[in-house]
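User: structure tokens for Phosphoribosylglycinamide formyltransferase, please.
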Amino acid sequence: MPDQQGPLAVVVLISGSGSNLQAMIDAQHRGAPFRIAAVISNRADAFGLERARRHAIPAEVLSHSGYPDRESYDADLRQLIDGYAPGLVILAGFMRILTPEFVAHYQGRMLNIHPSLLPKFRGLHTHQRALDAGESEHGASVHFVTAELDGGPLVTQAKVSVLPGDTAETLAARVLAHEHIIYPMAADWFAQGRLQLGADGVPYLDGTRLESPYLIDERVSENAPLD
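Assistant: Done. Predicted tokens:
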């Protein structure tokens, strides 16, 4: 259980528009038990940085260009993150493959969201790949981060139906709306001490081992998951 006075400090890493960051900001404003201490991007043109500035959240840029390798970049990124003393690190569209040493430093306190029902469709272009595979369901997954790309222990998933006539764009939009529900939900659980990664490498929610991810579907309202 996180041991802190007041809201849990969170650092959010982004590379793009930051819509999941905005969902976290909105949750914070609704009274979630976490505080976004900083937003860090590897791209200076990431719109998520502007989202942070609009809400008086420190916005930092650490470009990966000019670094000779991932290890040296991740070492500086770790130093920058740790300057904010976060209890949780959130990957919200951070388009970097992280080194094992970096991941190990934040073991059990770093979450990622991926736009598929993992373990299906790891990597990129998930929506088109789901359509090409003829899937009847698609969705998003929140997981603890490990050195295996999109392969960490699953916390929660949201499912949406694949509809006749769906394109990658229409499917992505419905999935994204559910990402904005389940990601703040998982961060809320973690900040309350309800969610933790056990020594056995399996997530526990309210002391119960999550043998499979906590599942919601498209019928769930935005106000329901935090109960």
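User: Anything notable?

Assistant: The chain has one domain: 8-216.
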